[in-house]
Write a structure and sequence with these properties.
With 234 residues, the protein is of the alpha/beta class. It has 2 domains: 117 residues, 3-Layer(aba) Sandwich (Rossmann fold); 103 residues, Winged helix-like DNA-binding domain superfamily/Winged helix DNA-binding domain (Arc Repressor Mutant, subunit A), CATH 1.10.10. The chain is built from 8 helices and 12 strands. The strands form 3 sheets. The chain has a 5-stranded parallel sheet, sandwiched between helices. Strand 11 and strand 12 form a beta hairpin. The structure holds calcium ion. The site of calcium ion has 5 residues, from loops.
Length: 234
């Protein structure tokens, strides 16, 4: 049974989530406070973290940032605001997806399922294709879920890993936004901006100069491409 850690200070909403997700077959733990939620995660872990943005004390962004310091657990942020700003900041800090309040319960359940399935499929697929993918300075160890750049480990979120995997399997090919969205987010409801944020985040981790990317380049009007080794400077 998959465990979901809900970090949400609105007790009524947290209880409703526990009830709904419980009926869907998930084991749900609720924590009403950010710092306590982080502590709880560090002690017990979880298969997925449902994280409210606006929390008293340590807010959701800070909790997200700290979880990402040493974990690739899928994180789904709950945001109350209408503006894209906080959602995008959440993605910058390593959240995989977000849902804006007020949300439809079915939508939330669908997004949780999609996120967990992505992690599961990635594991299964990696199992089937055991081995190592290489492209220039980048190496992906599919068995160990490890990525390295020039021999140094790079820590990626599940979403970034999925994106990089899509590129590493098709070096030199321009991948359209639609293709990448379909590869990484099977059920995609979010803003297309999400893809750009994750690409930018991935570049920050693997590019020498993220503002002048040499590995994952933007192909105007087409999408993005992982440059094959002979075309990269390294
Ligand atoms: Ca809140």
């Amino acid at each position: 049974m998959k465990n979901i850690l809900v970090i949400e200070d609105e007790a009524a909403l947290a209880e409703a989530l526990k009830y709904t997700l419980g009926k869907e077959g998930y084991d749900v733990d609720i924590v009403l406070d950010g710092a306590e939620g982080l502590e709880r995660f560090r002690t017990y872990g979880a298969d997925l973290v449902l994280l409210d943005l606006m929390l008293p004390g340590m807010d959701g962004l800070e909790v997200c940032r700290r979880i990402r310091q040493d974990s690739a657990v899928p994180i789904l942020m709950l945001t109350a605001k209408d503006s894209d700003t906080d959602e995008v900041v959440g993605l910058e800090l390593g959240a995989d997806d977000y849902v804006t309040k007020p949300f439809n319960t079915r939508t939330l359940v669908t997004r949780i399922r999609a996120l967990l399935r992505r992690v599961e499929e990635r594991r299964e697929e990696d199992g089937r294709r055991q081995g190592t993918l290489r492209c220039g300075p980048l190496v992906m160890d599919l068995e160990r879920h490890e990525v390295s750049l020039d021999g140094r480990p790079v820590r990626l979120t599940p979403t970034e890993y999925g994106l990089l995997l899509a590129f590493m399997r098709r070096p030199g090919r321009a991948l359209t936004r639609e293709f990448l969205l379909a590869q990484v987010w099977e059920d995609f409801y979010g803003s297309p901006k999400t893809l750009d944020v994750h690409i930018r985040h991935l570049r920050k981790k693997i590019e020498e100069d993220p503002s002048n990317p040499k590995l994952i380049t933007t192909i105007r009007g087409a999408g993005f491409r992982l440059e094959p080794p002979e075309e990269t400077s390294r």
